[in-house]
Write a structure and sequence with these properties.
Elements lengths: L1 H11 L1 E3 L10 H28 L6 H30 L3 E3 H34 L2 H4 L2 H19 L1 H7 L16 H4 L8 H34 L4 H34 L5 H30 L16
Antiparallel strand pairs: 1-2
Helix pairs in contact: 2-3, 2-11, 3-4, 3-11, 4-6, 4-7, 4-9, 4-10, 9-10, 10-11
Membrane topology: Multi-pass membrane protein
Keywords: Cell membrane, G-protein coupled receptor, Membrane, Olfaction, Receptor, Sensory transduction, Transducer, Transmembrane, Transmembrane helix
Pfam families: 7tm_4
Length: 316
Amino acid sequence: MMSAVNDTKFNSAVFLLTGIPGQEDVHLWISIPFCLMYVISIVGNSVILFIIKTDPSLHEPMYIFLSMLAVTDLGLSIATMPTTLGIFLFNSREISLGACFAQLFFIHSLSFTESSVLLLMAFDRFVAICNPYASILTLPRIAKMGLVLVLRGVAVIFPLPFLLKQFRYCRANVLSHSYCLHQDVMKRACSDIRVNYIYGLFLTFFTVGLDSLLICLSYVMILKTALSVTSHAECLRALNTCVSHLCAVLLFYTPEIGLAVIHRFGNSSSHLLQILLGYISLLVPPLINPIVVSSLSASSAGYVGVEPYCVLDSYI
């Protein structure tokens, strides 16, 4: 009889999502800024995609990368919006296991894809400053890069829902966020989660961690190249094209890495801190990136580049 209960536990179980603990009475008021954030994110990124698509003069590498960033931001907003607004507007906390696994798949795959896009944008900044622009980043190469980064984001996350599906969930089913994350869901299992733990840690270090390291390396090389320019004005102009992208990088990686570390190593940390970092990591970048990329486009408009000296030349 006990075995039958355990066997049916998985099929009937649901997770309970969390809004902001202790603020349930004002969830309806809290929903107002969340609704505004989602509307601004969706409209802002949609406008960027529309402008880039309809203006032939913007069919260049930099703007194609911006459109990739806008698509991933739209995806993240759409993936988190139903459950987040469901909690704050209708107090709908329950989510089935299947829906939860699907949501975490899209959230994590889109997050890794956005990390790849930011890496490509860093490389784009380096090429724009150091080399003839179109000689390296041709449209066919950009299309291949985009396909590869999407496949990477999907492939590395694809095993996770199937691994989670094998577990029995007999512990407290209350999740820490208003959406599903792998590191949060796996802690609710009463099975051996070592494979998920090690694989999740591997993904964090060798996707987000590696991408952030390569971005730092790109900017070290950009800085070295810019400082080699004799003209102080050209040096500042070159570095100015990177400021907006750096803001987008910091906005994405700081809460993303912080949340991953807290979930795995910060068991004694404040639960409110986890919730705050979760909202920042998934809601703020899609909201701010349209502003950031508009600034990036403005600062890069008409930029010809510095003299054809490049640090990369010494490595070729």
